[in-house]
Amino acid sequence: MFNELAMKKRIAGLNKRIERYNCRIPAMRKSLNRELDKMNTELIKLHSKKEKSIETYEKINTLESGKNDLEYAIDNLHKIESVSYSDYSNLINRFYELKEDNLRFRTFVQDYITSITVYRDKVVFCLNYGLGILDDVTKKYTFERRLFKTPTQKM
After folding, report:
1. pLDDT at residue 155, as a whole number
2. Which of 12, 20, 25, 150 pairs with 31 at a CA distance of 20 to 30 A?
3. What is the DSSP string of the chain?
4. Structural domain of residue 26, as residue ranges?
5. Residue 143 lies inside a defined structural domain of this protein
């Protein structure tokens, strides 16, 4: 998991995903702006009505909330910088440094281990190696159960 070659492969895979994400940004921005234009048009129509019912006010509130969410999404849509090996190795170094501080170590691990599944014959760890940049970059590691012994079991 922490060997240099494997880390370099994960970084290359992460950077490919970052590149694909960055290429989709203009299309996502265009789509969000179209959606925002539709909401603005609908809001203008609703505000221009002479008599407004409770349903109209509720729809205006819903559209305003949706508009704010879209504006926030558009404002936060930006290119992501690629990751270098030093960024990744700094993360690993932080992992080892935090082992002494249980609370901070636990928080760090929870950020990067998405699940642990224990089976009768194996243990599966699912790690998020997107470095907090991309959420859907995960890798599963499977270890045979015989590698894990409890203190009462003989080796």
Report:
1. 46
2. 12
3. ---HHHHHHHHHHHHHHHHHHHHHHHHHHHHHHHHHHHHHHHHHHHHH-SS--HHHHHHHHHHHHHHHHHHHHHHT--PPPPPPHHHHHHHHHHHHHHTTSHHHHHHHHHHHEEEEEE-SSEEEEEEE-STTT-TT-EEEEEEEGGG---TTS--
4. 4-75
5. no
